[in-house]
Design goal:
Shape: elongated
Number of helices: 9
Number of domains: 2
Number of strands: 18
CATH architecture of the largest domain: 3-Layer(aba) Sandwich
Strand content: 25-35%
CATH superfamily of the largest domain: NAD(P)-binding Rossmann-like Domain
GO molecular function: metal ion binding; oxidoreductase activity
CATH class of the largest domain: Alpha Beta
Domain Enoyl reductase (ER): 13-334
InterPro entries: ADH-like_C (IPR013149), ADH-like_N (IPR013154), ER (IPR020843), GroES-like_sf (IPR011032), NAD(P)-bd_dom_sf (IPR036291), Zn_alcohol_dh (IPR050129)
Order of helices and strands: EEEEEEEEEEHHEHEHEHEHEHEHEHE
Radius of gyration: 21 Å
Distance between the termini: 22 Å
Pfam families: ADH_N, ADH_zinc_N
Oligomer: single chain
Largest sheet: 7 strands, mixed
Structural class: alpha/beta
Protein name: Geraniol dehydrogenase 1 isoform X2
Length: 341
């Protein structure tokens, strides 16, 4: 592929810096055995590997969906064609501080073709947020099913009502609770607006964890809402205060799935953990096969996406500023380029 054609590029160093246009950027050549994808939509998000204290480094360009611009002719039986709509499972070299409208994909196995009717903006929410939530729910599913054998009701507490929390509500209701009234999904957050949105997404109840309230009151309030205590926690915050709180309300043999974006160190009494037979499970984003499964669920309309809003790429700086200040409810998706029919 010729590199003579210029492409769109925005770059920023951190959440405090504005995006600037990159001059003289060229469309990349097709890598051996790989492909080049024209990006149409990109999710505005971070990765846990790029969270350092309260300073958020941007990782644009890794949660994307677009159209195949070119495929290496040496790729055998890939069933990929120019013009196919695809989701890009993030490769390591995609973790940059830059938005491009063309990216290289070294391994075509990381391209997932989506049908024409699949909304491209929804596809762009899947490789990070949707996939992380799906991985969390699939981790939780066998645990909850086992608990239901011995308990009348299982209380699931989701800590964080942002994009990950909303995805988790949708997926947990579809894959775990279904029509079962014995599984109660409760959401905790510091934002009342986010909790109202979580209620709209169908959770059983919500808890306002106001930072100004006394810790013991928040614990008692949580136990009052989650009658009988909490059996399983999916924690997307994992600050020292919230994590300590979840352990205070966690039942015997309870499980905490940690997918938090906090880099603070947390002290845990292993003796108490052992005596209560409680478990802490780490969570990463997920696999490419899980991403394929998630696409199938959405294509079959067994799961619907959470609330989202789309913005032009030129508003990227403001979008990330609003995200950092918790002014955006649900997910934010940036339109990088037009979707060609």
């Amino acid at each position: 592929m010729s590199r003579s054609a210029a492409m769109f590029c925005l770059r920023s160093g951190s959440i405090e810096e504005k995006f600037d246009y990159c001059p003289d950027t060229q469309i990349p050549s097709i890598p051996p055995g790989g492909a080049v994808v024209k990006i149409c939509y990109a999710g505005a998000c971070y990765t846990e590997d790029h969270m350092i204290g309260h300073h958020k480094n941007l990782t644009p360009g890794f949660e994307v969906a677009g159209i195949i611009h070119g495929v290496c002719p040496s790729v055998p039986n890939a069933n990929l064609n120019i013009g196919d709509r695809v989701i890009v499972f993030p490769e390591e070299h995609h973790y940059t501080n830059t938005y491009y409208d063309y990216i290289t994909v070294k391994d075509v196995n990381n391209l997932i073709v989506i049908p024409p009717e699949f909304p491209m903006e929804v596809a762009a929410m899947l490789p990070c947020g949707g996939l992380t939530a799906y991985n969390a729910v699939m981790r939780a599913k066998p645990i909850v099913e086992y608990m239901l054998q011995n308990r009348n009701c299982v209380n699931i507490l989701i800590v964080g009502a942002g994009g990950l929390g909303l995805w988790t509500i949708k997926l947990a209701k579809a894959l775990i609770s279904g029509d079962c009234n014995r599984v109660h999904i409760t959401v905790a957050d510091t934002s009342i607006d986010k909790l109202l949105l979580a209620q709209d997404h169908g959770c059983y109840d919500v808890i306002h964890w106001n930072d100004a309230d006394h810790e013991q009151y928040l614990i008692e309030r949580t136990l009052d809402v989650c009658r009988g205590g909490v059996d399983l926690v999916i924690d997307y915050v994992s600050s020292p205060r919230t994590f300590s709180r979840t352990l205070q309300v966690l039942n015997r043999e309870g499980v905490v799935i940690v997918g938090g974006n906090c880099q603070f160190e947390i002290s845990i009494c292993l003796n108490t953990l052992a005596q209560n037979q409680q478990s802490i499970v780490g969570l990463h984003s997920g696999t490419v096969n899980q991403l394929r499964q998630l696409v199938e669920l959405l294509t079959a309309q067994k799961v619907t996406p959470p609330t989202y809003a789309t913005y032009p790429i030129t508003q990227a700086s403001q979008v990330f500023k609003d995200l950092n200040e918790c002014k955006i409810l649900g997910r934010a998706v940036l339109q990088v380029s037009a979707v060609e029919d």
